[in-house]
């Protein structure tokens, strides 16, 4: 997993790497996934580097809440909240996490099946 110094998501949060940002505030940034798995596929990240959900501690409680709150705001602003959407946090290699910075996927715009994969 990446460290803060070589983390692509830290670069996006800091504005050093261009991305299609759909929402941001002082604690989170949301941007379109470059490999979308649904018509709407937005990633929500904390601005502070946190490698994964498994690395979160008691001091990260508010930050985790901010990420989930931002995911709901993204769903509403993208027009998928009423029909339904999925929020996913992959953790670790076998969990499907490909970037070592905690991120929530907001997916919608089509019927999503279960199990996911």
Radius of gyration: 14 Å
Largest sheet: 5 strands, antiparallel
Oligomer: single chain
Determine the N-to-C terminus distance.
22 Å
Series of H and E elements: HEEEHEE
What would the average pLDDT be, to the nearest integer? Answer: 95
**Largest sheet, order of strands side by side?**
1-2-3-5-4
Give helix % range: 10-25%
Number of DSSP strands?
5
Low-confidence stretches: none
Number of helical stretches of at least 4 residues? 2
Summing up helix and strand content along with how strands pair, one would put the structural category as: alpha+beta
Strand content: 15-25%
Based on Cα principal axes, name the global outline. Answer: globular
Describe this structure in words.
With 117 residues, this protein is an alpha+beta fold. The chain has helices at residues 8-13, 61-77, and strands spanning 21-24, 28-32, 40-46, 85-88, 104-108. It has a five-stranded antiparallel β-sheet with strand order 1-2-3-5-4. Strand 2 and strand 3 (40-46) form a beta hairpin.
Observed structural traits:
5-stranded antiparallel beta sheet; about 120 residues; alpha+beta
